[in-house]
Structure formats: structure tokens, C-alpha cells
Specification:
Keywords: Signal
Helix content: 10-25%
Number of domains: 1
InterPro entries: MmpS_C
Largest sheet: 4 strands, antiparallel
Structural class: mainly beta
Oligomer: single chain
């Protein structure tokens, strides 16, 4: 019995600190257009695109703050943040107002 307890203890101890790397997707889609799209992934500098092609999608795999800002919206656009296949944030603009999605996750 002692051998079994030691083996189980080692297996549990070995798996305790292993966190899965998150799969992060940011998406901007819809029937509209935008003059400017700014996005930030954890550990990266902010990036701004002028008159970007839509739909827009980028992926990342690091915990922290994720943000999308869409300005100069013409028509209907939706931004989404999807982590490990689960949509955690969404916002839609139908009035031409600026659009923002952001989410912070543990590192």
C-alpha cells in the first residue's frame, strides 16, 4: 500500500502547478466598416490598423488583459473575445458609436 500512496502522491504533485495555455481569439465582424481598429494582447504592444479588412481575427495564447477598440464605425459591427472556445465578452454597434471589448484574465 505504501508504494501506491507514494506513486499517487507524485502524480498529483507533478500535475498541481501545470496550467494549460489559454487559447485566445479576438474577432470583429458584421456588415459594416471601420476607420480604425486597435487591439492589445497580453505581453504585446498595442497595434492600430487603419481601414482594416473585415472580418478581423487574431489569436494569442497568454494570460493578462485583452482589448479591442473600434472607432469610426459605419454600419453594424460586433467585437468578441473568445477564450478556450468560450465567448467572454461581446459588444455590438449599430449606431456608428465606438465599440470596445476588453477582458482581463489571471496570468
Amino acid at each position: 500500500m505504501k508504494t501506491v500512496a507514494v506513486v499517487v502522491g507524485l502524480v498529483l504533485a507533478g500535475s498541481a502547478g501545470c496550467a494549460a495555455t489559454p487559447s485566445i481569439r479576438v474577432v470583429v465582424e458584421g456588415t459594416g466598416t471601420t476607420d480604425q481598429l486597435t487591439y492589445t494582447f497580453p505581453g504585446e504592444r498595442e497595434r492600430t490598423l487603419r481601414n482594416p479588412d473585415l472580418p478581423f481575427e487574431r489569436t494569442g495564447a497568454r494570460g493578462g488583459r485583452i482589448a479591442i477598440r473600434v472607432e469610426g464605425v459605419h454600419g453594424e459591427l460586433t467585437c468578441k473575445i473568445i477564450i478556450n472556445g468560450r465567448q467572454v465578452k461581446t459588444a455590438t454597434s449599430t449606431t456608428g458609436a465606438a465599440l470596445t471589448c476588453d477582458h482581463s484574465m489571471a496570468v
